[in-house]
Amino acid sequence: MTETIIRLTDLRSDARYTTHTPQIPAQIRAAAGHLEDALARRLHDLRISVTDRCNFRCVYCMPKDVFDKDYAFLPQSSLLSFEEIERAARLFVEHGVEKLRLTGGEPLLRKHIERLIEMLARLRTPSGKPVDITLTTNGSLLARRAQSLKDAGLTRVTVSLDSLDDTIFRQMNDVDFPVAKVLEGIAEAQHVGLGPVKVNMVVKRGTNDADIVPMARHFHGSGVILRFIEYMDVGTSNGWRMDEVLPSAEVIARVNDALAVEPLEANYPGETAQRWRYRDGGGEVGVISSVTRAFCGTCSRARLSTEGKLYLCLFASAGHDLRTLLRNGASDAQISTVIGDIWHGRTDRYSALRTAATGLPENAPPKVEMSYIGG
Ligand code: SAM
Ligand code: SF4
Ligand code: SF4
């Protein structure tokens, strides 16, 4: 009985349930292929979470004590269907989105995701270009799915891998998953042409920072772009502490001591990673410094949650419920106007406001979990 009461209390404070319900607009405004927010940041990327479930329990994302057998994952009926996702994505593309990233939870757990990729691959930007379609995965199912994903129209893949040390990797994914299977998935993705493959390593000081140089050496010269991500205070369940963040400057210094690097220009304004290249021609490496070097000033990303809420920031505490509009007969023009209005009003810049001393903005409301909103 006590257990049930605690769970109900948890649900009431669960950030997933905090929602803005957009009104059907009285006046329609056509998409112009270019949308700027209140801080003049252009909408460019849409990240779409296709499931809130995952077969890993990474300690920094879905810790087992919260995401246990009693955790209330979303029921199937709450998930956006592929048709709903495609419709929403099309409206975003009309507003200037050129890049779609499928994520989760673990996106390869969503049944028949290849069919969704085929649908999205048919979208065209207002100037007639195909849309860049990428996917972020833990790599556990990649070896056997890489070819079908490529055939469906996926452009590239990003694989998360936090260590090459099997013991540490098994501890970090917390489901005893072996590193060799993820490496097989990366090799297969490269083999079928889903490249350049990017590998994301979340660095937690004291947990896997000893793996920085071995990871850099392993992927040096392989064509894989390794990126080190600062451990972030996403969600409310991972018990984040500033002293577990290893600043990217230190990460790059350690890499540079082993393999000399020099900085590279960004590919485009708003790119999350700072890019470096090995001086000996061994390829590229990057850092994503969301904690120590906020990039809110150029943040061009919107996120669509598994159940169709639009989030304007990774650290948001409330989303805008587009699913109700998609399901209650609103027209494309009405939903498109709503999307435009929401983006126009965007002022989010959580990382820029994070205090240097404690790492956490004061009096911040509970944030939504990354497995729900999509990374
Ligand atoms: N399951 C897929 C995966 O792991 O690649 C996709 C979803 S996962 C939420 C997306 C990315 O978020 C992964 O690269 C993961 O390492 C990263 N991530 C999750 N929690 C994080 C945290 N607290 N700090 C930094 N990155 C985090
Ligand atoms: Fe799953 Fe990805 Fe989160 Fe790890 S980071 S628990 S693989 S969603
Ligand atoms: Fe974008 Fe929010 Fe991250 Fe800033 S904190 S870069 S606004 S997602």
TrEMBL record:
Pathway in which this enzyme or protein is active: Cofactor biosynthesis; molybdopterin biosynthesis
Name of the top EC class for this enzyme: lyase
Binding site for [4Fe-4S] cluster 1: C54, C58, C61
Residues at which GTP binds: R47, R101, T136, K198, R301, A302, R303
Domain of life: Bacteria
Protein name in UniProt: GTP 3',8-cyclase
Enzyme Commission identifier(s): 4.1.99.22
GO biological process: Mo-molybdopterin cofactor biosynthetic process
Known role: Catalyzes the cyclization of GTP to (8S)-3',8-cyclo-7,8-dihydroguanosine 5'-triphosphate.
Note on how the cofactor is bound: Binds 2 [4Fe-4S] clusters. Binds 1 [4Fe-4S] cluster coordinated with 3 cysteines and an exchangeable S-adenosyl-L-methionine and 1 [4Fe-4S] cluster coordinated with 3 cysteines and the GTP-derived substrate.
Record text on subunit structure and interactions: Monomer and homodimer.
GO molecular function: 4 iron, 4 sulfur cluster binding; cyclic pyranopterin monophosphate synthase activity; GTP 3',8'-cyclase activity; GTP binding; metal ion binding; S-adenosyl-L-methionine binding
Needed co-factor(s): [4Fe-4S] cluster
Coiled-coil parts of chain: none
Sequence similarity: Belongs to the radical SAM superfamily. MoaA family.
UniProt xrefs under InterPro entries: Aldolase_TIM (IPR013785), Elp3/MiaA/NifB-like_rSAM (IPR006638), MoaA (IPR013483), MoaA-like (IPR040064), MoaA_NifB_PqqE_Fe-S-bd_CS (IPR000385), MoaA_twitch (IPR010505), MoCo_biosynth_MoaA/MoaC (IPR050105), rSAM (IPR007197)
Pfam families cross-referenced by the UniProt entry: Mob_synth_C (PF06463), Radical_SAM (PF04055)
Amino acids binding [4Fe-4S] cluster 2: C296, C299, C313
Binding positions for S-adenosyl-L-methionine per the UniProt entry: Y60, G105, S160, M232
Catalytic activity: GTP + AH2 + S-adenosyl-L-methionine = (8S)-3',8-cyclo-7,8-dihydroguanosine 5'-triphosphate + 5'-deoxyadenosine + L-methionine + A + H(+)
Occurrences of domain Radical SAM core (ranges): 38-279
Keywords annotated in UniProt: 4Fe-4S, GTP-binding, Iron, Iron-sulfur, Lyase, Metal-binding, Molybdenum cofactor biosynthesis, Nucleotide-binding, S-adenosyl-L-methionine
CDD domains in the record: Radical_SAM, Twitch_MoaA
